[in-house]
Amino acid sequence: MLKTRSFIALSLLLAACSGAQDPGGEDGNSGDGSGSGAAPSGTGAQGNGSGTGGSTGHPGDPPACESGVAATSQLRRLTNAQYDKTVAKLLGLTELSGAPPSSLLVPDNTGSMNGLMWSSYQTVAEQIAREVMADPNLRKNFLKCELTGDGAACLSSTIDEFGRRAFRRPLSPEDKARFQKLVDEGAAMTPNGTPEEVAELLLYGLLISSGFLERQELTGTKDSSGRVALSGHEIASRLSYMLTGTMPDELLSQAADSDELKTPDQILEHATRLLEMPEAREVVARYHREYLGYIPGNSRWDSPARVGKGPDFKGFKKELVPAMMAETEKLFDKVTFDQEGSFKDLLLTQVGFVNAGTAALYGISGDFGGDELREVDLGPERPGFLTRLAFLAGFSDFDRASPILRGAFISQRVIGVHIDSPDPNAINTPLPTSADLDTNRKQVDAQTSGGPCLECHHTYINPPGFVMEAFDTVGAPQTTEKRTGAPIDTKAEITLAVGAEPVPVNSPAELMEVIATSKEANRFYAQSILSSAYERLPNEFDACVVDDLGTKLLTGYSIKNLLADLARTEAFRTRTIEEN
Amino acid sequence: MTTVNKRAHNRRIFLKGLGGALVAAPFLPSVHERWAKAQGVPANKPIRSVIYFTHNGCITDYWFPTKESGPLDAEALAGTTLEPLTPYVNKLCFPRGLKAYNSYGEIQTVDPHDQAMGSKLTCATIDPDGSRYATSHSIDHEIAKQINPGGAAPLVLSVSGGSGTNIKDVMSFSAPGVAYPAISNPQTVYNNLTNLLGSGSGEPTPDDYRLKRGKGIADLIRGDLEALQRIDMSKRDRQRVQDWLDLITDVTGPVQVAAGCTADNATALGVTSDAVKAVSGGGFQSSGTVSGSADMMFKLMALTMMCDQNRSFIFTYPGYFTFNWDGIVHEKDHHGLSHRVGSAAVGGPCYTDSSGRSSVELLHEIDAWFVGKYLKLIETLDSIDEGDSKLLDNCLVTWTQEISDGAAHNTNNQPMIIAGSGGGYIKQGVIVQLDSRAADRGKSTYECGPNDTDEDAGFSSGSNTGNVPINKLWVTIANATGCKAPDGGPMTHWGQFDSRNLDAGITNPGELDALRA
Questions:
Q1: Rounded to a whole number, what is the distance in Å from the CA of B132 to chain A's nearest CA?
Q2: Highest CATH level, class, for A76-215
Q3: What is the ipTM of this complex?
Q4: Which residues contact A564 (CB under 8 A, 6 or more apart)?
Q5: Where are the beta strands (DSSP E) in A179-244?
Q6: Domain boundaries in chain A?
């Protein structure tokens, strides 16, 4: 018997948006809610190995639709990424000593301000203020007037003008008085008391104020249902950070000033406009990365058993992995923005992006030059992102294709079936070998036939994975098992939800069609995008919106429309305060 | 007054009267607030906890001392990975027989890497499906809250690549479900300290402009936050405002500053602006941003102690990096090597690199590097005189590992060392067997090592015994630093459970008496 064992850490697969989540406290987090979003970010989260999963799973139903708005924090601290983008838009400064300003801040943290965090904000603000005042090109982004005489008039107007941009709202009289006092007494706080030094002090003070560091929602009163309608400036801030990752632009700010963000249609007008900006593509690419949960550092790609070894990995090079990842990102971008497509198009598009290296793996002939990705039509047998190399090669085992890794991903992250973590002892389940088990499918089927594995594997995980056996470890089409020459069977019955009638499919193309037209997968996608956009876990109050958006997606409603409509919901336009 | 003794071979820094002289507060008000609050805390020789953490276990049968218990001597370390620590045998304590974290298997069945990160310092369950964050705060935060000047948060540090918020990177939790990621940029830590360091050559004058600026800024931000307090908010948001406000204070006159907290001492320690800059920044892992950065973080920890800015520390390494510095040239990442197959897969053919070295040999090289760094950390702390002892003597530098062996993923028989006695609280120069059954040195070399009988990686590399719950160790360390139970007596409990019955809670409270001096 081979010693090869199976062990899958489903943490990666389960990390972000499973079916029914406890909303916890404010923002769906159990702790402080000023953090950076629903799913933890960072590096190093490779899934472990390949093999058995879901041994004790129980699929859960999506939360039932319930009317209401979940409590959110009124004091969301800028994430480090938002901090950098806000400083860039506000002042034109993108680096301090060759690195983004936030490289000197403490990592994103959802807790209260602490000493080191506060110290780092002050240090970075001090450096930004110094650099801005020392560079005439940056300085004009701060001061719109000349510091003539004692500079008092210019600095007073700067409090109003720059303060409004920095705080994403007009300053209150109280705010202005505090900054005016700093300016009035600034000469005594600086070495030479020059207007330039006082201006630098003012900028420093603004950049460490709560109005800059936090996305505050402070105005309004509760209605009879306990909801508070956001002000125009609060709407503008939410909208801008949701769709562009940074502070509002001038048009949006003017709309807020003019109280023209009161109705859903007024908001929609600006959402539509913002989605045309280049920053929107960056933001939506992040939402899609969170939806996919792909980890670029997946070390299965780097397995020594793969590179240059064995028939299963012919032509595979670790160096091609970035091109594979880039292809997937370009596919999502193309469908979302260029084609204005819907969820189904992500699964059905024939568009591919290849370079010389990946074209060979796809089996495409022609001159593809060097590393640059070129758009190609991959034909009807390769529909959508689940038939692209990044998924197929990344979700293979180190020495063979993995129906379990592929199937678990499809069931959990695309269809949205909730499956609990497997028992750690599952690692001791060997992959059986015998003469009659002449295909990978048969081996895995036998491996997962034991008691606790059976239900989840045979109902939800294995079937879509078996269909994807049409592609080998690297992603090339295969019809026979390389090891034995036995024919590969890609027929399976797909169960999309608990109690649902299984749907027979024969090929990856049919599987993609079934998924693309399923209400479960459309709903799950809508929920994932909502979670990313609202920077929190979904809750039961979101269920109505998710149901509605999922249903619309089924009719061909575009992803851009979905993103825009997320700005029109009650949850977006109003807030509630957590009961004490 | 702190002095620097520039000896020929060992430049030492003397920290006398850490309680400090009264000098004018030259710099940021926020840090001085903590000093003002620290007046009620015994200032002389505070005890510090440093947790030194490494991922993916080690080659245990090379790592452990060759004897199970009793006095620690050079012979017990001879030929082991730990041999370089021999000069410090009299300042080391080996607690044997501990489990990496409390229980596993029946309470939760989660990836042991994730459970170790979430449960080790919290002794609590973790969120099994979402973030996998712990459901309680970690011991470093408890210690910080109780003994840090002003209750400042602990200093959690790493090197390039170690500051992610994924559970694979996070072991410190400030509250249930609230991760406290590590700072990986030495510049961030240094910037905080430079605001404190006196010149050592003269006291700033009370009318220094920065003092006035500090007061003006404090007024500004206090006014800002007090305005927020007048707005209807949730209890959580109000607490956020209050926590921030607590960091702001006036500096209108002399406040207490640690006498050792000077620029001269920082320079003597090797902490200068240029030196910090040389190992800071960059999102890539190189000799500078990993090895050099680790060394600088150790010095910054020491300087932080000299300034008494923190008494609760964690230093971690990323778990998934590929060693390519200090003469080590690896082709596969640490985690992949720990599985013996060169990737995250579990089981399969043993990996050998392009020069024919086995995964066990490569892991042994990594383990030796970690030992070298641990040695550097305790050397740094031992080079600083604090009254009639060394800074190290008033620390507990606890090396704990995520799991025990990376292939078996076993959590029993935890490889662990404590350096420093915590002011005489913990035994020194000894190996203490805590389990009722003698622990072996494990069998790491039985998978892809010289004791393997085939060429495949399996799961025979674990240990047989060593299941003492780790919560009692944290109780012992917390008490050594001066932490108290709510009733004012010594702490007896830490965590949610210490057996495989969550409902039973802590069934065996108290310290590890066998470790007490």
A1: 8
A2: mainly alpha
A3: 0.84
A4: A268, A271, A272, A275
A5: 214-216, 228-229
A6: 76-215
Q: Do A40 and B166 touch (CB under 8 A)?
A: yes
- Could you write out the DSSP letters of every residue in A384-409? SGGGSHHHHHHTB-SSSB-HHHHHHH
Give dist(CA A350, CA A382) in Å, integer: 6
Per DSSP, A335 falls in state I
B398 membership: H or E segment, kind and range:
strand B395-401
Which chain B residue has the Cα nearest residue A73?
Answer: B237
Out of A394-408, B133-147, B176-190, least confident range: A394-408
Identify which of B209, B351, B456 has the shortest CB distance to residue A3. Answer: B456
> How far apart are alpha carbons A142 and A256 in whole angstroms?
21
Residue B16 has pLDDT above 70, yes or no: no
Interface of A with B in 96-155 (CB under 8 A): 97-99, 103-116, 118-120, 122-123
CA A493 to each of CA A384, A507, B324, B510: distance values in angstroms, whole numbers, following the listed order: 20, 11, 48, 56
What are the start-end ranges of the H helices in B8-88?
A: 29-37, 60-63, 74-77
CA distance B209 to B108: 57
The tokens of B451 are what?
């004791």
- Which helix (H) or strand (E) is B430 found in, with range? strand B430-433
Contacts of B134 in chain A (CB under 8 A): none
Choose, out of B231, B276, B343, the residue to mutate when testing the contact with A (most A CBs < 10 Å).
B343
Taking CB atoms and an 8 Å cutoff, what residues of chain B touch A182?
A: 216-217, 219-220
What's chain B's length in residues? Answer: 517
Q: What angle do CA A572, A109, B257 make, to 5 degrees?
A: 135
Please indicate whether, in this complex, the C-beta atoms of B335 and A42 are within 8 angstroms of each other. Answer: no
Asked if B34 contacts B149 with a C-beta cutoff of 8 angstroms, the reply is yes
Residue B278 tokens read as 């040389």
Best probe of the A interface among B117, B171, B220, B276, by most A CBs < 10 A, is: B220
pLDDT per residue as tens digits for the range B365-395: 999 999 999 999 999 999 998 888 999 999 9
State which amino acid sits at residue A497: A
Strands B312-316, B155-157: pairing is parallel
Residue written as token pair 């964690």: B314
Q: Cα distance from B220 to chain A (closest Cα, Å)?
A: 6
| pLDDT for the residue numbered A477 | 92
Burial (CB count within 10 angstroms: exposed 0-12, middle 13-18, buried 19+), residue B229? exposed
Token pair, residue A77, equals 């601290």
Cβ atoms within 10 Å of A483's Cβ, excluding its own: 14
Q: pLDDT for A510-531, tens place per residue?
A: 999 999 999 999 999 999 999 9
**For residues A208 and A217, what is the distance between their CA atoms, to the nearest angstrom?**
18
Residue among B202, B189, B171 nearest B52 (CA):
B171
Whole-angstrom Cα distance, residue A315 to residue A327? 18
Q: How far is B313 from chain A (nearest CA, A)?
A: 13
Q: What DSSP string describes B290-304?
A: IIIHHHHHHHHHHHH
For chain A, which residues score pLDDT lower than 50? 1-25, 28-61
Name the pLDDT band for B436 (thresholds 50, 70, 90).
Answer: confident
Residue A122: closest CA among B311, B282, B218: B218
Please, how many CA atoms are within 13 Å of residue A115, restricted to the half-sphere of its CB? Answer: 28
Question: Do the strands B21-24 and B254-257 form a parallel or antiparallel pair, or are they unpaired?
Answer: antiparallel
Determine the Cα–Cα distance for residues B472 and B494; give it in Å rounded to an integer: 7
A positions 243-282 inside 8 Å of B (CB): none
CA separation (Å) from A503 to A178, A270, A306, A518, B114?
Answer: 67, 42, 34, 11, 36
Residue B368 and residue B80: Cα distance in Å, rounded? 9
Secondary structure (3-state) at A529: helix
- What CA–CA distance (Å, rounded) separates A369 from A50? 35
